[in-house]
C-alpha cells in the first residue's frame, strides 16, 4: 500500500469516485499495519490474529472470506447478532437526522432510553447517566457511591473485572490485567464465590457460604468500618463466568447494609437478558442494588455505558459533569431498537430456554471428557473450566488455547477467561437457534476429542 493513498476518496479508471475508508484489505496487510500503527498493548485471541470484515446475524466473515459461527458476540455485546436489520436501520436513519449533541443539550432519544432503563431495572432505580463504555459506567457508579455516602472505601471481589479506568485497574481482581500498581487507595478485594476453587477449601452447600460471611472480617480488618460500597458482577465474566451460589448476595449484603454502604451491581456482561428469565442477572438472587451499571449488550454493539440509580443517590452529585459522546443519539436509538426487538422476541425467556439446551450439551460433554472440571453459568452465559486432572484441578491453560484454535479452524468462535485462562466462555448472540447450539456442541465435542488426545 502506498503512503499516498490517504485521501478519503479515490477515482478509478472510469472516473468513478470511491471511499477509500471502505476499501477492503486482506488479513496479512491488516496484521502488518496493526503491528506498525496500533499499540502492542491490545490483547488479541489466537496466535495469528483474526481479522474480521463482515457480520450477519450469527456469522462473521474474515478478511480472507472465511465464515465463522460466532458464539462470543464480540464479548457478549451484539445481543441480537451482527448487523441486526432493525438496529442498523435505526442507526442509519438517526445518523441522517442528528448524530451528535453532547450532553450540554437534551434530546428525545436519551430520555426515552432512560425511561426504558428505569422500567427494566428492579426497585426504584430511576435516573441514568450515559457514557461510552462499561469502564466509565463503573467509574460513575463508584463516584456516586462516594459522593452519596461521604465515604471512600470500596469492597470488590477477587477475580472481578471493571475495565480500564484508574478505579477499575486499582480494583482489578486479576494481576494479568493490572499493568501498574493500584493508584486508588481504599480498595479491599475479598474472596470470590468461586465454588469450584473455594478460597476456604469448602464445598457448597455445606460451606454455608463461608465466602459471603468473610465480608465481616474484610470490613473489620481492611476498612474503617464505613465503606462506601460493595461492587460485584452477578456472574464474574472475565473471571471465567464464576457463578455465585443462589444465597450469596443475600448473605454478603447483610453486613454491607449494616455499615450503610451501597451495593453497586455491575451488569455489563449479565444485563439485557443474557442470564435468562430476567432482564438483569441480579434478579436471580432476590436482592436490590442501589446502583447498576450496563454496557456491552445494551446497544447490540454500538458504544454505550449506563449507570442507573435512585433519585436520592443521583442528587448527591453536585459538581459539574459532562460526557461528550455519552448518550449520543446514534447509540441511544441502537439501544432503543435493541430493547424493542428483545421485548418482541421475549429474549430473557429465549435465553433461558436456549441456555438450557447449551447447558445440557456441555454437561453431556463433561461426562465424556475428564478435561472438563466444571460447567457453570446461567442462560446464554455458560463456561467450562478445563483441568488436567479432576483431583488436583491443575488448570489446563495450554489445552484451552489449543481448543480455541481448533475451533477457529472448524469455523466456530468462542471466548476464554478466568485467572488461569483455562475457562472457555460460550455466550452467543441471543437470537441463536437450537440447531446452531447443537452445531456448536458438535464442534466442541470434536475439539475436546482432539485436544484430550494430544
Ligand atoms: C463486568 C465488566 N465491567 C466493566 C467492563 C468494562 O467495560 P468496557 O470494556 O466497555 O470499558 C467489562 C468489560 O469486559 C466487564 O466485563
Question: What's the quick description here?
Answer:
The protein is of the alpha/beta class. Helices cover 36% and strands 16% of the residues.
Mean pLDDT: 95
Number of helices: 13
**Main sheet: strands, sense, barrel:** 7 strands, mixed
Class inferred from helices and paired strands? alpha/beta
Protein architecture, described:
This protein is α/β, with parallel strands linked by helices and 454 residues long. The chain folds into 2 domains: 28-76 and 346-454, Aspartate Aminotransferase, domain 1; 88-344, Aspartate Aminotransferase, domain 2. Helices cover 36% and strands 16% of the residues. The chain contains 13 helices and 17 strands. The protein has helices at residues 27-37, 73-76, 85-97, 108-120, 134-149, 166-171, 210-222, 248-259, 311-314, 329-344, 347-368, 397-409, 434-453, and strands at residues 9-11, 17-19, 52-56, 59-62, 67-70, 127-131, 154-157, 187-190, 229-232, 262-266, 291-294, 305-309, 372-378, 381-386, 412-413, 415-417, 423-426. The strands form 4 sheets. The protein has a 7-stranded mixed beta sheet with strand order 6-12-11-10-9-7-8, sandwiched between helices. A 4-stranded mixed beta sheet has the order 3-4-5-15. It is globular, with a radius of gyration of 22 Å. The two termini are 41 Å apart. The structure holds pyridoxal-5'-phosphate.
Amino acid at each position: 500500500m502506498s503512503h499516498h493513498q490517504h485521501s478519503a476518496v479515490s477515482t478509478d479508471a472510469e472516473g468513478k469516485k470511491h471511499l477509500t475508508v471502505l476499501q477492503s484489505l486482506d488479513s496479512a496487510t491488516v496484521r502488518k499495519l496493526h503491528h506498525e500503527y496500533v499499540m502492542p498493548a491490545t490483547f488479541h485471541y489466537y496466535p495469528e490474529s483474526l481479522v474480521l470484515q463482515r457480520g450477519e446475524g450469527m456469522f462473521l466473515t474474515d478478511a480472507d472470506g472465511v465464515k465463522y459461527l460466532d458464539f462470543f458476540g464480540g464479548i457478549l455485546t451484539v445481543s441480537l447478532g451482527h448487523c441486526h436489520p432493525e438496529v442498523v436501520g435505526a442507526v442509519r436513519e438517526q445518523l441522517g437526522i442528528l448524530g451528535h449533541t453532547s450532553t450540554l443539550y437534551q434530546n428525545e432519544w436519551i430520555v426515552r432510553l432512560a425511561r426504558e432503563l428505569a422500567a427494566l431495572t428492579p426497585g426504584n432505580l430511576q435516573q441514568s447517566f450515559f457514557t461510552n463504555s462499561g469502564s466509565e459506567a463503573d467509574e460513575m457508579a463508584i463516584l456516586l457511591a462516594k459522593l452519596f455516602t461521604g465515604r471512600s472505601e470500596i469492597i470488590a471481589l477477587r477475580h472481578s473485572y471493571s475495565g480500564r479506568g484508574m478505579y477499575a485497574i486499582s480494583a482489578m481482581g486479576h494481576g494479568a490485567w493490572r499493568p501498574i500498581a493500584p493508584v486508588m487507595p481504599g480498595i479491599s478485594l475479598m474472596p470470590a464465590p468461586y465454588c469450584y476453587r473455594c478460597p476456604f477449601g469448602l464445598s457448597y452447600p455445606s460451606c454455608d457460604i463461608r465466602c459471603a460471611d468473610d465480608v465481616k472480617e474484610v470490613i473489620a480488618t481492611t476498612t474503617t468500618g464505613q465503606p462506601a460500597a460493595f461492587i460485584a458482577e452477578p456472574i464474574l465474566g472475565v473471571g471465567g463466568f464464576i457463578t455465585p451460589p443462589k444465597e450469596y448476595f443475600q448473605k454478603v449484603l447483610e453486613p454491607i447494609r449494616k455499615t450503610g454502604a451501597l451495593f453497586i451491581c455491575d451488569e455489563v456482561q449479565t444485563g439485557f437478558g443474557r442470564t435468562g428469565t430476567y432482564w438483569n442477572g441480579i434478579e436471580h438472587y432476590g436482592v436490590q442494588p442501589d446502583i447498576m451499571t450496563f454496557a456491552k449488550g445494551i446497544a447490540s454493539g454500538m458504544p454505550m455505558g449506563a449507570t442507573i440509580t435512585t433519585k436520592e443517590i443521583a442528587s448527591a452529585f453536585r459538581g459539574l459533569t459532562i460526557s461528550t459522546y455519552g448518550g449520543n443519539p446514534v447509540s441511544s436509538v441502537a439501544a432503543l431498537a435493541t430493547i424493542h426487538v428483545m421485548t418482541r422476541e421475549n429474549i430473557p425467556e429465549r435465553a433461558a430456554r436456549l441456555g438450557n439446551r447449551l447447558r445440557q450439551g456441555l454437561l453431556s460433554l463433561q461426562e465424556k471428557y475428564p478435561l472438563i472440571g466444571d460447567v457453570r453459568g446461567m442462560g446464554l452465559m455458560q463456561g467450562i473450566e478445563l483441568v488436567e486432572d479432576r483431583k488436583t484441578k491443575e488448570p489446563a491453560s495450554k489445552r484451552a488455547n489449543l481448543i480455541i484454535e481448533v475451533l477457529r479452524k472448524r469455523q466456530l468462535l468462542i471466548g476464554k477467561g478466568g485467572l488461569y485462562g483455562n475457562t472457555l466462555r460460550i455466550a452467543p448472540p441471543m437470537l441463536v437457534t437450537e440447531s446452531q447450539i447443537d452445531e456448536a456442541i458438535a464442534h466442541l465435542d470434536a475439539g475436546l476429542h482432539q485436544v484430550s488426545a494430544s
